[in-house]
Amino acid sequence: MAEDRLIYLPLGGAGEIGMNCYVYGYGAPDAERLIVVDLGVAFPDMETSPGVDLIFADIAWLAERADRIDGIFITHAHEDHVGAVGHLWSRLRAPVYARRFTAHHARRKMEEQGQDPENVRIAGIWPETVEAGPFTVGFLPVSHSIPESSSLVIETKAGRIIHTGDFKIDVAPGVGEPFDRALWTEAAKPGVKALVCDSTNVFSRHEGRSESTVGPEIQRLVAEQTGMVVATTFASNVARVRTLAEAGVASGRSVCLLGRAMRRMIEASVETNVLSDFPTTVSPEEARDIPRDHLMLIVTGSQGERRAASAQLSRGKYLGLSMDEGDTFLFSSKTIPGNEKGVIRIMNAFSEMGVDIIDDDNGRYHVSGHANRPDLATMHELVAPQIVIPMHGEHRHLREHVKLASASGRTGVLAPNGTCVSLSGNKPEIVEFVETGRTYLDGAVQIGALDGVVRDRIRMALNGHVVVTMILDEEDAPLGDPWVELVGLPETGRSGSSLTDVMEADLGQFLQRANDKTLLDDAKLDEGLRRVARQTALDEIGRKPEVTVVVSRLS
Amino acid sequence: MAEDRLIYLPLGGAGEIGMNCYVYGYGAPDAERLIVVDLGVAFPDMETSPGVDLIFADIAWLAERADRIDGIFITHAHEDHVGAVGHLWSRLRAPVYARRFTAHHARRKMEEQGQDPENVRIAGIWPETVEAGPFTVGFLPVSHSIPESSSLVIETKAGRIIHTGDFKIDVAPGVGEPFDRALWTEAAKPGVKALVCDSTNVFSRHEGRSESTVGPEIQRLVAEQTGMVVATTFASNVARVRTLAEAGVASGRSVCLLGRAMRRMIEASVETNVLSDFPTTVSPEEARDIPRDHLMLIVTGSQGERRAASAQLSRGKYLGLSMDEGDTFLFSSKTIPGNEKGVIRIMNAFSEMGVDIIDDDNGRYHVSGHANRPDLATMHELVAPQIVIPMHGEHRHLREHVKLASASGRTGVLAPNGTCVSLSGNKPEIVEFVETGRTYLDGAVQIGALDGVVRDRIRMALNGHVVVTMILDEEDAPLGDPWVELVGLPETGRSGSSLTDVMEADLGQFLQRANDKTLLDDAKLDEGLRRVARQTALDEIGRKPEVTVVVSRLS
Fold this sequence. Notes:
Shape of chain A: globular
Strand order of the largest sheet of chain A: 8-7-6-3-2-1-21-22
Oligomer: homodimer
Number of domains of chain A: 3
Strand content of chain A: 15-25%
CATH superfamily of the largest domain in chain A: Ribonuclease Z/Hydroxyacylglutathione hydrolase-like
Helix content of chain A: 25-40%
């Protein structure tokens, strides 16, 4: 029998920022018992995934081995770590472990998808541990930008792994546990085989700043404003939301939370005892009657999301509240790459209303939740692992993080999604490449990213769509002329005539010339009509559209 | 008769960065003689304009008054200032004036669209002037990021206007004229009524840096590399391209230009005497035989454009050249908002090849071509106009620029696209709002942005497309069952059956129940079938698709 081995396999998150899903295994090769760390989502965009609702890691590999999974561990409640748990759980069916605040969110997500929330179990903090097959797992508190974030201390017969999850080193994070160096030193003490480590900010050169540094800046800013102040941040950054609310109160303003996610997060924080001292808020109804200079709104939509409160306000009234000349809008957030245009759209709409916009151009009103390059080096040093495996990053982040590890003489492993690494031997070894990919939640259906569904949508968006219909009579002769319907195409082209008319005429001519061999063969007919339609479009409007041909035979 | 007046009317560029098109008029109200400054393009994106090739300002207002246009003046050869000249000229038919290098590009654009390039006339530099109806216009050299950029000195009976075009204040721009303070002082001396001024960088707090500062940094960087060096920048930034080439030569490398725009720009520069000392280059064929550490490629595609040389290299071989582990890729450019994802895609592809990527995160290898906030203040001071009218910016830029002008006691006018401002009286007065908008070049056809064509494409991309066809016999009874074709939709939904089958069954049932009133009425039938198809899709796959219904009647 082959010797037991310890493996690491990222299925998502090691090739993108988002969609986190990591697997650890221990046991005989190809019969390892498994645990899963995080089941997150990524978000679609118009360019690559129009119409898609959410993106998950393709967990086919895991699902085929569901009987070997001893537990699913969620490090924290950000969507890219917990967002897929409700959607994917039924294919894995293992207990889900998380700390109280995270579990609160995981349970809601299970319920929303019709799964029993009791499958989510609340875990204490390290040195308390959870036994999951051959793994003993402890939740080691770490600072990030959401309460109760945790790293995982994963103990196996082949050694200890520390999986950081998302983190920064912040000794004054506002809400939640400060980074506890003593506890971390303790966790690292027995020797750590591998540090599997967040890479998001590896390109940020300067030491990260504490959440506590933004408070005074925000207080000062809010106090200076003479109109209404509206501020947005990530709803899950509970510490920041509180800081904003406190700044409102300190300047004599009533505070109103706008946007479902914002209220939900604060409620969850209070319910799970993460937060006990949030300022009193007023409802939108009450807010309407408060003078603008005594009012502060804290709203969702820092990324320009079209349905969030900030976008609604930028389009006019929202719940009876609206912005006006002399008001101030603060982005206490950074714009995630890809969201720039949506954010800029909102800024310009506010500008047209005469609202002053303050963003984070200088880092005064926002700090990142991830460890910057020097902080990553500090973490390497603190944990002093044999191996550093960068995760949570695009390929360029992982690669740079490996370089950083190597620079201080550590073994770094570049393991993008699908790379199965054995950690048992004296040095890490890539033992297999597993097929990975993306699953799209498309309305109510999960489809593969490469199924062709989304590709067809993109093609229609880029090229327009022509529908050609025709009828063949009982003798397989054309009955009347072909019909053309255009969707997403100009009505008139170079000739000045209707594109429909020109195309129908060209298709009619083609049918007149078509012999029986063509008329009797559906594929040939389809192909011929399609070719003519595309050529006519090219001549008339300079592009080849997508074409759907429907031939009805009365025979 | 009403008194003559001087008007300013932006049709594009005062509401976006790009698509510049400004109008000045002088004469009796509503009978002013007109000149046009710049005819530029904006670029489409998948989110708002999928499939579109180029975006122009809607020039309907101008085209209706074409007989009153005395000249079209192009400030410089960037696409957002000259790109539409070939496409729109036939609707305006006035002489086009530009300096030699700009005229070279404008003429090519005229030729490409089948217009006589001789309509583009070459102008000298101020104090030489062009007479255009009641306007006397001089091209005042100014530094920017393309050769021969010019501001315009526009002399009228109602006073002098200086229209900056795009500019920075750079006394050592590398290629082209340094900013000549004495000349500018001279131009401003008689007193300036209005400064119409670039606003792009109004949010950049620090004084701008000279093009000459990047040379030494790039030299140092290139000299340090041991593999092949590939650098990208905007092809039109001829000074930068030369700086990159010189850095290659200085480190003993042969230089090869890749990408049509890159070669075209350098050729145009040499042809028009803008550039006389560009290093000798090698062809891609020659480059293949040169050892990597002796080779430098300068390539197009700094914005991640999918067809440009950098994207091609990121996907593998391009013209027989490819990148490899140990090579370096330098972005000597900034990423324009909206292009982040494309650029990041390329970076990660290079990362997978083991290529080191250096971008402009610290401003070491790139400087902007636009005047920053303090430089704008310097310009205001130098020209000392009665009025400052910010242009070339989104609304937020224009508004901020007005604030900047006001802060030093000047009259600033916020005039977004369509705002017609009279400059004749003692103070500026908004006299009219003109309808403005965007025209899409879609293949070979110009369509209005609001024509619905692109809206239909976006809907198909977001929702998928169902085609329903059915035949009614001579008695208007359904002949056989309706047919369904799905494009961009999942094949299977909640029931586990084929969505096509379920939908065809539901549509068939609807027809069985339909009475003559429905069957005889095309609109009713269409509406009914559409409603059923959408409801079935909602039940099965959780979304309502676009539906095209084609009913054929044999009667």
